[in-house]
Amino acid sequence: MLTRAGRYDWAVTEFVRVSGTLLPRKSFTRVCPELHAGARTGSGTPVRVQLMGSDPVCLAENAARLAELQPAGIDLNFGCPAPLVNRHRGGAALLDEPELLHRIAAAVRGAVPQAIPVTAKMRLGIADTARALDCARALAAGGVQALAVHARTRSDGYRPQVRWEWVARIREAVALPVIANGEVWNVADWRAIRSATGCDDVMLGRGAVADPFLSRRIRGERDEAVGATDWQDLQPLLADFWSQVRVKLEPRHAPGRLKQWLGLLQRNYPAAEAFYRRVREMKDVSAISAALGRSIILSVRTGLPGQARGEDSSYSTASRPPPPPPQPSPPGAAKAAAPAAPPCRGPLTASRPPAAALGHNASDRMIENTP
Ligand SMILES: Cc1cc2nc3c(=O)[nH]c(=O)nc-3n(C[C@H](O)[C@H](O)[C@H](O)COP(=O)(O)O)c2cc1C
After folding, report:
1. Residue 256 is part of which domain span?
2. pLDDT, tens digit, 9 for 90 and up, residues 8-48
3. 128, 157, 335, 349: which one has the fewest Cβ atoms less than 10 Å from its Cβ?
């Protein structure tokens, strides 16, 4: 849905957790239904699938199985700071073991056809940045073709402070495209991160959710600032999102999902804040549907929901801080280690040399990581 409103070079799924078993294909298609459609979103954006784990052999075997489904790429997660994940040696917990990162990257690269790019995403370290360069070099030597760097350590969590200068150091230390990530909420942030890091490529996370048109603003396809008609233009997307969560989630979970999105949208859209206030206490799906229906009609007439009736006209236009990010717990990942799955077999025999780095020519490449 976000790739319909924005324009991205590629997108990455939430992670699929790999821990000791060879996962069934549905573990991958659940997190990435686009695998049924040429690994592209409805609007044509290529989708890469992200894996997380700590066992090189098991990751490689799962990557080989995933490769049979022809993803647009395979990404390795060394960035997730969630305590539960880290306790099981996943994500950012491996950032003081560069030699293991190297073995994982090399095993996965060796197990996957060259035509499928293998990339990685890392934070700067666990508690400090001391091994950031070692980790980046290890992944590069292992054969990943691009490296997304979230400019924080695991201990930094989601503190507002980001360390873009460390992304610059990593970019200088490795001979592959480095994709800068962290705290890009608007076009000015995008300019600032590119200038601070020297990276051509930027990964948008929450900023793309808080303003689905952000990538188009960056590309110069829409005004830089959020304008009066933008909320109106978002209405079909909101309606589509609501109908999808109603189909995919149990009725008691659907309202929370919509409110979560509104929580981020209200950073940029005063009308989202007004609408959020209206539905905040609602738990009933049909009441929210009715409110959403009214909001859409009103916003199409006036550009601002509620204003036609003089409601909610006193809301502040000042940005609120975003709500603290929930701990990532993708449903597919949670169910990934199904008991029926067979264990990983053992050392892989097939080994291919690392691929050349991905072509890296555009100055405006944008990647979306779907948080
Ligand atoms: C709820 C949530 C879930 C996330 N899940 C993932 C994930 O599965 N894989 C990943 O690499 N990053 C994940 N991230 C991290 C984002 O991709 C991104 O690195 C981070 O939010 C910083 O970038 P931003 O400031 O642009 O949001 C997640 C972030 C949030 C808030």
Report:
1. 228-267+269-309
2. 999 999 999 999 999 999 999 999 999 999 999 999 999 99
3. 349
